[in-house]
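Dear Dr. V.,

Thank you for agreeing to look over these. As mentioned in my earlier message, I'm a first-year student in the group and I'm still getting used to reading structure tokens, so any feedback on how I've presented them would be very welcome. I ran two proteins. I've put each sequence directly above its structure. The first is here:
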Amino acid sequence: MNGLGYAGIALLMFLENIFPPIPSEVVMPLAGFTATQGGMSLVGVIVAGSLGSLLGALPWYYAGKVYGHKRMREFADRYGRWITVSPDDIDHATDWFNRHGRSAVLIGRLVPGVRTLISVPAGISGMGLFPFLLYSTIGTVAWTSLLAICGYILRDQWSAVEAYISPVSTILITGLVLLFAYRFVRQWRGRRRQRREMSQQAGE
């Protein structure tokens, strides 16, 4: 960050979206603290962080958009049990985003652990690039501003921001893992039940 300045902040936030283990809860408060030392402005820090974050969201958005609804349904039907996604889930997600896509993207960009993932269903649902960028920008600027301002105010205590937000991220990630396990077992049992029913029908 000291060596690359604004470009370094943008790069770190880009990587934070591509590779989630890099936490914005550390990057942006540190960037805010760095702005207090001179050489960078708080506004510049927020702009750089927001730009990097938005650029990092685009690859995930296009990954969902390129595969599309039909191919994702086929993929879910064949391999869905390994990622706990069924064809019905794809249908429900598409319907949900058709009704609430814009607000879902905006709110999702404010939630640790969800910020990156929200781009994928937005792309799958066919959400247009302009509204995706618009609502992503609103959520992203709000999130990066909050973290950077906290770091700016706390100065050399900037790491306290991560200490407060980290437990929230841990709870969300733990919940996602438990949800994954539950959905995997449910779909596995459902497929076994379907096979038994098909075998019984074939026997009759």
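The second protein is here, in the same arrangement:
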Amino acid sequence: MTCVTVEIIDHVAHVRLNRADKMNALDPEMLDGIVQAGADVNRDDVRAVVLSGDGRAFCAGLDVATFGKLGSDPQMLLERTHGRSNLFQRVAMIWHELPMPVICALHHTCFGGGLQIAMGADIRIAAPQTRMSIMEMKWGLVPDMGGMVLLPRLIRADVMRRLTYTGEVFTAEQALDWGMVTEIADDPLARARELATDIAGKSPSAIRTAKALAEIAATQPVEQVLLAESQLQADLIGKPHQMEAVMANMQKRAPDFK
């Protein structure tokens, strides 16, 4: 059985963690499968990605059996096997670095590595009863799957430190208040698919440009952000996707982006 499934329908890639009997816990096969899935959906015809977990949980974090492998050779973490990251970091960072929006649907459990994967998405939608945790401290560890790149962009430093130091379990409501969750929905997967469909109906070039500009805005000084706004906007104006968006609005019809 494939541990991660990918299905592309109407320009939306549906990526599903598929190790339901283990609450989608991350073992070596699952890690490789997630990275491969991220690479597989990085296609021109994909306009949005929905990331979810099969079964009763999104992801319970690192499979305990995997700790043994790490303990036998911790120096493996220092190897930059995937560009600027190792395999564990790539599992989360690949979603952050995809050029199209990624929407993550969370339910029941989102712990440790699972939480860091979710933080790599652009948007996170959680079921009301979802439990979340930066759980590495429970095992005498620290977040090491891109969490310290992604979390500081979402939540206040003092909240991040508290959650990291304690490893406490918190609710979707708390995560919403802190900015880790975008919204709460009774059916997060249905809501994620609804949003993805909406996004997929917008100009593909404008959506990708918006994601690139958002990253510049989060990391660059004001002068660079203002210049990027101008440069990227100039690249869009008058191009086929932009002209189709204008014509569709004027003619009161759905756009048809080639």
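From my reading of the second output: The radius of gyration is 19 Å. The beta strands are 4-9, 12-17, 48-53, 102-106, 109-111, 123-126, 131-133, 169-171, 183-184. Does that match how you would interpret it?

Kind regards,
E.
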